[in-house]
Hints:
The chain is of the alpha/beta class. The protein has helices at residues 48-57, 77-89, 99-111, 115-124, 132-140, 154-164, 181-189, 209-219, 231-243, 247-256, 265-273, 286-300, 333-345, 352-358, 365-378; strands at residues 39-42, 61-64, 69-72, 93-96, 126-129, 170-174, 193-197, 200-203, 225-228, 259-262, 302-307, 310-315, 318-321, 328-330, 385-388, 392-395. Helix content is 42%, strand content 17%.
Amino acid sequence: MTSETGTTTDLQPAPAAPSAASPLLVPGPGLPQTLDGFRIGVTSDRRSEDLISAFERRGAEVLHAPALRIAPLTESLTLQEDTRRAIAAQPDFVVITTAYGMRRWAEAAQAYGMDAAFYETLERASILVRGPKARGAVRAQGLDDDGVAEDERTNTVVQMLLERGVAGKTVLIQLHGASDDSQIRRLEAAGATVLTVLPYAWSKPEKDSELLRLIDSVIERQLDLVTFTAAPAVEAFLSVARQYGRGTELVDALRTDVVTAAVGGVTAAPLYDAGVEPIIPSRWRLGAMIKLVCDHLETHHTLRRKTRHGVMEIRGRQVRFCDVEDQHVQLPPGPLSLLRELADADGAVLSREHLLSVLGQCDSEHALEMWVSRLRKSLPVGDVVQTVVKRGYRLAV
C-alpha cells in the first residue's frame, strides 16, 4: 500500500507503541529513543534548536540547513516610518498575522519611543488575528482581539473583514516576512485603505552550500524525513534545487522515498503545489509535529520480519537482528532499498528483472550484484539474503 506521503510501506509495520522493555529500544535519560536509526533534515531557522534537540534526544541523527533566515527589522527606518504612519492613520482594523511579528513590532515601537501611541492605536482599533499564537501575543500586550481565523490563514482573516464591511475604512496589516499583495488587493477592491508594517523579513543564507548538502541528501535517499515550519522556507528549498538543476530529482525523492512533515496547512501549501503529500499534525504546533514525526516513522517506517536468524528490524538506515546480541548495522541507501524489497516479499523469490524495475538507483545487473554483495558483507548474518539459481534472490525466512 502507499502511505499518505507516497512512501511504499507494504512491509509489516511495527506496533505503534512498543513495550518499554523491548530490546529493540535503547532507553535515553527518561525518554525512549523512538527515532533511533532515522535521519531527519531540519530546514527552519527560528526555533530550530527545539526541533533538533527533540529529535536527537529520541535517537535520530539530524542534518540542519536553514532554507531562509529571519531578520528582525527593529532598526529599520522603513519600519519606523510605517509605524509612525499607522499611528497617524488611526486604523479601524488591525490584522496581526504572527506572534513573532507582533512581539518584534511592539519591541520596535518601544525602541522608537512610540510605545504609548502604539498601544493606544491598537486598543482603539478592532484587532483580528490569524491564529491562536497571534492571539496570545496580542493579549500579552494587554490587548483584546475581535476575531480569529480558526484555520490560521490570512485569506480567512481578510474574508472576515470583507463580511464586516471595509468600504471607507482603514486596515493595517502586520505582514509575515513578505507582502501579501493578493489579499491587499481584495481589501482595496472592497473600498478599504490598506497600510502595512513589516517587523521582520526572510533572507537567504549567505551561502547555498549547507542547503545544497541537505538537498543532495534527500535526492540520494540519505534522509528519512524533512521538516518544514514556514511556507517561504519550502519555496526557498525547492527554488534552490531548481536553480542548481536538481528540482526534478528533489521532488521525485520527496514524492517517493523521503517523507515531508509540515507544521501546518499554510506551510504545506507549496509542497502540495509541487505534487508532494506531507504529513501534517491536526494541531498546527511544533510539539504536535514532533509527536507526529515520531509516531509516523515508528508506525510506517519501522519494519519487522521473521527470518531464519530471528526477528529482523529495519529502522531508517539501521538493521538489527533481535536474536543476535549487540548486532546492528547502518546500511547505505542502495543495499537498504534492496533489503526492504526482499523483506516486502516475505520469503518469495524476486527476479533480477523485477528488482531492477523497482530499485530506481540500480541500473544494471552488475550494479544489482554489487548491491547484493555489499548487503551480505554489511549484515551480521549475510546468509539471510539467498541466491536462487537462475531465478533471483529471496530473504531466508
